[in-house]
Amino acid sequence: MPSSTAAPSSNDPQVLRVAAGGAEAELLLLRPPSGPARQLLYWLPAMGVAARNYLPLAAALAGHGLAVALHEWRGIGSSSWRAGRRRDWGYRELLQEDLPAGLAAARAALPEAQALIGGHSLGGQLSALYAGLHPAAFDGLVLVASGAPYWCCFRHRWAVRAAYGLAPLLAGLCGHLPGRRIGFGGNEARGVIRDWSRSGRSGRYAAAGLGELESGMARLDCPLLALRLRDDWLGPDASLEWLLGKLPRATPTRVVLTTAELHGPADHFSWMKAPAAVAACIAAWAVARGAAIGAAAAS
């Protein structure tokens, strides 16, 4: 059962402890500083990135009137587990155990808010996978610097293809992927790397214990914001379009942010330190989406 472990001030997140599959982690919840939260964005971090790194984004979104719940990946940040030879997991545990537990805690805290789900990079991919498994649970999907990892979508495609072959081998040798040491991701579980590498090699989404995941994505019918950073080589246009091609019934709004709009580098991670432009874009889309829902309900 989730429990609050910290009473938030007007500027601090509410901290909920969420348990799932034997692991525990913090769920960080930020509410608007004034007025009720009519929309809740459940946010999934990039691979290896702790939830607290998105507090500036969440604070900026709260300033626009959105509540934000920051999910913590198993094995990262506040999680009580770390990946190793004795502890392994993959997409199945993330999608069937951790995400339902975190979402239940967020929904219990804000039961009246319209629910959106989204994320950064791998977080965007897994938000799309989860929404495909639960299509009636969300009023919209937000992708930031995200896209399918299919090797054919990248500039140095053969190097990327080789990395998808080597990563599972390295994770098996070490007991986990030593992302901190090699400069990519965090210290990731072998199962996560196997599932991620499989989608990178094949261009299709599947997971051990779950099978194929694309039929649910193909049925997902909801508004979608796809926000890309212009100079992001980790999330190029081809990668984003490959992912959007798996969501044919969604209604996408595509936005590309430049260095001028971001007042800084338009790359995969720099925007996290100064997220005002990203937050404004998400908030404008969410407000328009909320207004459309309200108009439909009133008619």
Look at the structure and name the CATH superfamily: Alpha/Beta hydrolase fold, catalytic domain
Number of E-state strands: 13
Rounded radius of gyration (Å): 18 Å
CATH class group: Alpha Beta
CATH topology: Rossmann fold
Distance between the termini: 39 Å
Can you describe what's shown?
- The chain has helices at residues 55-63, 91-109, 122-133, 157-174, 179-182, 190-202, 214-219, 237-244, 259-262, 276-298; strands at residues 3-6, 14-20, 23-30, 39-44, 67-70, 114-120, 140-144, 177-178, 187-188, 206-207, 211-212, 223-229, 251-257.
- With 299 residues, the chain is α/β, with parallel strands linked by helices.
- The chain has one domain (3-149, 214-298): Alpha/Beta hydrolase fold, catalytic domain (Rossmann fold, 3-Layer(aba) Sandwich), CATH 3.40.50.1820.
- The strands form three sheets. The protein has a nine-stranded mixed beta sheet, sandwiched between helices. A two-stranded antiparallel ribbon has the order 8-9.
- Helix 1 packs across helix 10 (276-298).
- The longest helix is centred in the C-terminal third of the chain and has 23 residues, at 276-298.
- The chain is globular.
- The protein starts with a strand and ends with a helix.
